[in-house]
Amino acid sequence: MDSAENLIRMNDFQAQWEMIGASALGAVERVGKSGRYILGEEVASFERDLARQLGIPFVVGCASGLDAIEIGLRALGLKQGERVITTPLTAFATTLAIIRAGGIPVFVDVDQSGLLDLSLVEEVLKKDSDIRFIVPVHLYGHVVDLVKLDALRAKYGIVIVEDCAQAIGCKSYGIAAGSIGEYAGTSFYPTKNLGGMGDGGAVLCGTLERASLAKTLRNYGQSEQYRHEMIGMNSRLDEIQAALLRDAFLPHLGQFCARRAAIANKYKHDISHLSISIPPVPEGSSSGWHLFPILIKQNRQSFREYLLKQGIETGVHYPVPVPHQKCLSGERTEVLMSLPNAEMFALQEVSLPIHPFLSDSDVERIVTVCNSWMP
Ligand SMILES: *Cc1c(COP(=O)(O)O)cnc(C)c1O
């Protein structure tokens, strides 16, 4: 068995194209005919539609999730050398955005779910009243406890930029991810829950003033044509990408997330191997299941090889805690404590396929193969 076409992959963009191809081609044709390719009506319409769907007042399209976080931090006036609390267990882009905005990442360990541990964050803030910024990440599609996060802000006066790249449309106690931070950043990288056909991202925020600042920063720092108020970036979302997202992907977001949640429920219910554990979902989080993480205490490599031999691709999110990345050895970073949970996830985590195009029999097969592993 196990020919390439039998392989269950982490993503299935060909099946996706079968579903969205016609509307994608229609979107491209509309943009082509419009003759406008940069910052026109398509970007503006997509921003409005996404804002409405998320229940967040303003969305500002930009070039990537990385840029969205950088724009948020810069718009909030992060100063060179100012410290920013963040998580050691995330896509490297989170930390890269902090560094590019001039900040010094300060790593605080994660909790049992793999998300920034807000109790540890509070201990740090108690001791060090100079720290003003925090970038929490809603990892795996799970949402950091937003009630606690909001309370931390009230108590310590911190400024928050949420990393929503993996949690678009998700909630914590009914509060939308991205609506608590002064800004939030999200990504339309193809694998994300709302992924496009290339790179893209968006800044989310609650006021018109913040939205205009983000719009200025994404477009060379100009407030109007040839009037440059700030040192800005070129970080625009293309008209074509916005049209694709609006016509072909956004209408399916709810359905895709529901399918991911149904698969997650099946896994939680049916995977019963003693050597496989599933990290808890944070209290209050209605998750988007961008990924389905499991923990394999020992022999992770042999587990992954076994699944691959049975025709199932897996991932690891993430194998190296961010502060151990080579390029950070010459950079200013702070690790205020040991990071046992992040180290544990780095050693033990495996992500099972959970994309919305898995069939019921694919899911059955994944469960059966997991349960039949002999460590
Ligand atoms: C994907 C991702 C990013 C970066 O998004 P890009 O669009 O690839 O720049 C940032 N943070 C997290 C948690 C991500 O998963």
Give an account of the 3D structure:
The protein is of the alpha/beta class and 375 residues long. Helix content is 39%, strand content 15%. The strands form 4 sheets. Strands 1-9-8-5-4-2-3-15 form an 8-stranded mixed sheet. Strand 10 and strand 11 form a beta hairpin. The longest helix has 22 residues. It starts with 12 loop residues before the first helix and ends with a helix. 47% of the residues are buried. Pyridoxal-5'-phosphate (PLP) binds next to helix 3 and helix 4. The site of pyridoxal-5'-phosphate has 15 residues, from helix 3 and helix 4.
SSE blueprint:
Layout lengths: L12 H22 L6 H14 L3 E5 L2 H11 L7 E4 L5 H9 L3 E4 L10 H10 L5 E3 L10 H11 L2 E5 L7 E2 L2 E2 L6 E5 L13 E5 L2 H11 L3 E3 L2 E2 L10 H11 L3 H18 L5 E2 L7 E2 L5 E5 L3 H10 L24 E2 L4 H9 E4 L7 H12 L4
Parallel strand pairs: 2-3, 2-4, 3-15, 4-5, 5-8
Antiparallel strand pairs: 1-9, 6-7, 6-13, 8-9, 10-11, 12-14, 14-16
Helix pairs in contact: 1-8, 2-8, 3-4, 3-7, 5-6
Helix content: 25-40%
* Rounded Rg: 21 Å
Ligands and ions found: pyridoxal-5'-phosphate
Structural class: alpha/beta
Poorly predicted parts: none
Characteristic key phrases:
single chain, 375 residues, alpha/beta, 8-stranded mixed sheet, 3-stranded antiparallel sheet, 12 helices, globular, binds pyridoxal-5'-phosphate
Quick gist of this model?
The chain is built from twelve helices and 16 strands.
